[in-house]
Amino acid sequence: MTDHPVLIAGAGIGGLAMALTLHQLGVRCIVFESVRELKPLGVGINLQPNAVRELGDLGIGTEALDRIGLAAREWALVGLNGNDIYSEPRGLLAGYRWPQYAVHRGELQMLLYRTVVERLGKDSVRPGHRVAGYRNEADGTVTALVETADGRREVRGSLLVGADGMHSAVRAQMHPDQPPIHWGGAIMWRGVSPGVPIRSGASFVGLGTHRHRFVFYPISPPDPETGLATINWIAEVTVDASEGRKNSGWFKPVEIADFIHNFEGWTWDWLDVPALLSRADGAYENPMIDRDPVPTWRDGRVILIGDAAHPMYPTGSNGASQAIMDGRALGAALVEHGLGEAAFAAYDEKFCGPISQLVLRNRGAGPFGLLNLVDERCGGTFDNIDDVIPAAERSAFMAGYKKAAGFAIDTLNAAPPTIAAGARVGGKVDA
User: Fold this and answer.
1) To which H or E segment does residue 395 belong?
2) What 3-state DSSP class applies to 42?
3) CA-CA distance, 160 to 7, in Å (whole number)?
4) Mapping DSSP to helix (H, G, I), strand (E, B) and coil, where does residue 349 land?
């Protein structure tokens, strides 16, 4: 086993979860992050019970998650006239042994970052260091080519984990002929507004059609004085993508007035979409994008995880969860096979194919595919959903997605820990 540390490209959710896993397994690591200062950027995301379980095994429990988000209670789809298409309990209410959380993405990243620095030391994460490429060495090590404000330098490691996101330089070198970013025409505007939580008080609600929809859920408990929570929302419209993305930038701040007209008239006695949008300070516009799957995530002693491996549409609310699961599953492979290429090969063989299928499943609308069916069969307006899609068909559709995404209730509840307590790389388990 080499004395060189494991190198991680990217201090996002996946990279930081990987660092905490390696530390748990007794493996030294260094995280390189391209931005010079980590800040709590982004809006709301969901953490599925499988990821919450893994965070708990890393010592980040519900008390910490309660400070940055809210335990989810319901997931629901609603038609254009406000009638329910499908709803189900989530987290503990659904029978999972672990809750599901709606959290602020940036706050989760900062929680993981603070935990990494606390456990691994302040020099364990190096902002302003971009991994621009790599080189597998003949002696069984790997060299990361790291760019800083002072120029480029080389850092030797035992392994390199590419967790550098959608625009991964590690992936680009591994697959230089990969197709360009895929965009199917959906444009999302994302933001947060103060609002009164509806339904269960912690419900994820999607309404509209697969080409024109609005999704919202609270990411904080209500303020005791005002009764208002922070409501995360995604407003989405699908346009003709045949000529590609013409607007400048893939992710940019915009004014609410730029897109609110798309949701005029979306007002019911239980929800006023234009009013909710108007209470936001601003929004971010970004197209719903992913990349075509690649045949492998590894190259010698280099492996991809998270969005670098499988960037996917956010329709399944499991992108961050999958990044966490990647790090944990890779850690389990290292425990079983040791700190070398065999672990990467085993991990790649087990997960690359199935998760690539999940990418394509999400491209086909993921769990929001029920909206597609409703639109096809009745145009989105109905009196009784059972007359449009029978209950058994709706339940089977959702069960299929949960199984593919790795959080089917019975399977997850019965599964042993991904990494046994006290496990260390090399196969030894401490008493």
Assistant:
1) helix 391-405
2) coil
3) 5
4) helix
Show the tokens assigned to 263.
């949701």
Cα dihedral 150→156→162→163 (10° resolution): -60
Tokens of 240: 């003709």
Encoded amino acid at 256, one letter: I
Token couple for 146: 């790291």
Beta carbons within 8 Å of 151's beta carbon, 6+ residues apart = none
3-state secondary structure (DSSP) of residue 35: coil
Q: Are 422 and 429 in contact (CB under 8 A)?
A: yes
The model's pLDDT over 283-337, given as tens digits with 9 standing for 90+, comes to 999 888 889 999 999 999 999 999 999 998 776 667 899 999 999 999 999 999 9
What whole-number distance in Å separates Cα of residue 48 and Cα of residue 75?
A: 12
Question: CB–CB of 189/234 below 8 Å?
Answer: yes
Name the amino acid, one letter, at 399: A
pTM: 0.92
Hey, what are 94's tokens?
């659904």
For residue 241, give every residue at least 6 positions away whose Cβ sits within 8 Å of its Cβ, in sequence order, or none: 183, 184, 185
Which candidate, 113, 144, 107, 142, places its Cα nearest to that of 127? 113
